[in-house]
Amino acid sequence: MLKRDGAVVHVRGDTEHPVARGRLCHKCSIGYNGAWRDREARLAQPLRRAGRKGGGAFEAVSWDEALSEIAERLRAISPAEVLNAHYTGTFALLGYAFPLRFFNRLGATEVDPDTICNKAGHVALEYVWGTSLDGFDPRSAADASCILVWGANPSASAPHQHEHWLAEAPGTVIVVDPIRTPTAAAADLHLQPFPGSDAALAFSLLHVIRRDGLVDEEFVEHSTLGWDELEPLLEPCTPAWGEQVTGVPASLLVEAANVYARGPSLLWLGQGFQRQRTGGNAMRACGLLPAVTGNVGKPGAGFLYLNGPDSRGIDEDYLAGTALASAVPPAVSQMDLAGALADPERSKALFCWNINIAASNPAQERLRAALAREDLLTVAVDLFPTDTTDYADYVLPAASFLECDDLVASYFHLTISAQVKVEEPPGEALPNTEIFRRLAVAMGFDEPELQESDEAVIARLLEGVPGVDDFASLAAAGTVDLFPEPVVQFAERVFPTPSGRTELASARAEVEGHPRTPLPLVDDRPAGGRLRLLSPASQWLLNDSFANDGKIGKRIGGAEVAIHPDEALARGLSAGDDVELRNATGRLRARLAVSEDVLPGVALSHKGRWPKLEAGGANVNFLNAGEKADMGESTAVHGIEVELERAGPATQPADARR
Fold first, then answer.
1. What does the pLDDT look like over 297-331, one tens digit per residue?
2. Is the overall model pTM greater than 0.70, yes or no?
3. How far apart are CA 5 and CA 430, in angstroms?
4. CA 265 to CA 301: how far, in whole Å?
5. Which secondary structure element, helix H or strand E, spans residue 112, and what is its range?
6. What ranges do the domains of the chain cover?
7. Cα–Cα dist 88/355, whole Å
C-alpha cells in the first residue's frame, strides 16, 4: 500500500511476495485502485427499501433500526424458511466463514455455495481419492517432467501462474481446453477437444497408457481398487476413436499420453470442464490418470483441484461454528434457488452476502420475479449497490479487504497470508464479522461464539498453522510458505477413501446412483445450427467483481460473443455485427467476434457482467436455465446451447438501468 499523509493512495503488488513479484494482475490492479477505493461508489450506511423491489430506491437508517427491524421479522419466520445464500465475494477466512455461526445458530437453510461453481468436481474426486481439497504443492513443479493443465485457464483466472509458474516450469506443459487461450497457445502441447468429450479423451489417453506398457503395475496393485473393472472399458477407446469423438488428432493423444505417463507429472484439474451435464463423470475419468500411472506419492507428481484451508491446519468447523447447529435443514442447490424463492411455503426470508445472485445465478427471469415478492424478507450485505441489492428490503454496507484484519489461504499455494487493515471503511460500513455479531445481539442469541472478536478468532486459527507464531509476525512477513520443503502429496500412499486406496471403482458412487467406474461418455454435438455456449472467466473480471469499475467497463466494452470463421460465414456474419443469442430460457444481444481460437459449433461469451449496467439489461445467465450436472446438484452452465443470428433493431427493456 502506498500511503501519503497517512492515507492510502495506491494499491500495488508486493515486490517481496513470492507469487506476485511486485505486480498485481491487471483486473485487481485496476479494480483495487478504482471502484474498491471510490467512496462515492461504495455503500456507506444501512438502507431500507423505499419503493418497489428491483427499483433500487432506499432510505438511510441507523444500524440499530435496520437490525432491530430485521430481527423482529425473523422471529416470526420458521428458521428453515430462511435461505442463506453466500459464496466467495471475499476470499478471506473470517469474512467468508464467521457469519455461518449466526446461520448455524438460527437453523437457516443454506443455499449450497459450491453448486454455482465446482461441486460436481468435488463429489467426483472424493469418490476416487477421498478428497478434492488436498492437492499437490506447486513448488513440486521443479521436479516434474510434465504439467498437464486440464480445463483451467490461468491466463485469465491465475495470471501469476500463467506468467511465472508455468512459464518457468522445466517440464513439458500440456493444456486441454476447447478454447485456444493464451495459456493453451503458450503450451508445448494443446489438446482442443469439443466441449462435453473430456471423459472420452481421458479414456483414450488411458488406452494408450495401457497399450504402451506405461501403467504403474506396482501402484495399481497395492494402492488402487477396481482396476479389474476399469481395464476392460479401455480396450475400445483407441486413439482413432478418441480423435473421432473429441476432435483431438490421434497423434497428439498418443504424444500427450506418453509424456504424462512417463512422469513424474502434475495434473491441474480446472473447474471449467466439470460445469457440464456429465461433468462429474468427466472429473472422475480425469482423476484416474494419476492413479493408473502412479503419478502421486513422489516428488514432482500429484494432482490439484483446490488446496483447502484444512491442509494448512485451519479448523474450519470451529471457524464456521458448526457445533451451534441443533438442526441442519437440507441444503438448496443454486440451480433450484429461483424455484425455492418463488414458493412462499419454502422461503420467507433470504440473506445474500458475498454473492450477487441477480447477476451470477441461472434462471434470471424466474429469479427476479421471485425476488420481487413483497412478502419475502430480503437482506443483502455488500460493498456496492448491485443488481441483488436493488431487490433487498435492507442493504447492509460491508467493509472491503483493505478495511479489516483477516487471514487468506490460497486455493493453489500452500501458504497463509495476513490481510491487514490499512484504512477505515467508508461511512458506517462494517466487516462481515461485526455485522453478524450485531445481528446476533438483535436476535437475543447469547452464545459466546457469536461475539468472539476477530482478534481472538485469528489467534485461535493460527494455533493450528505450522510455523506461524501470531498475527503480528504473520503481518510483518505478509505471506508465509508453511512447509520448508515441497510437500509430497499422499507420501504415505494412504488415502481417505473407505478402502484406504484410490478407488477406480467406487461402491459409494454406486450407492449414490452412479456407475461404479467412470465411463467414456461423450455429449451429443449441437444440432439444427445451434452452438454450444461457453461462458468462462474473463481476463478483466473476477466472477462478477469489478464489473462496476469504470476503467474496466471501458476496456471490456459491450457484451461480445466469439465464433469460428466457418460459423460466421455460414450465417453471413462479420466481426463487429450485432447478433442475438437465444434459447428457450432467454435472449442476449452481443457484438460478434470471429476467431479461430474457438472451435466450429462453439460460441464463447465471458461471464461476470452486471445486467443493470448492460444496454439490454441482461447477461449470459439470462440464457442459463439452471440445468444440473450429474453430481452434487451442481451447475451445467457449459452445456447450454443457443441459436445465433443477426440482431434486429435494439430495444430497451422497461426495467433496464444504466
1. 999 999 999 999 999 999 999 999 999 999 899 99
2. yes
3. 24
4. 5
5. strand 109-112
6. 1-33, 43-112+318-400+421-469, 120-305+498-511, 531-646
7. 7
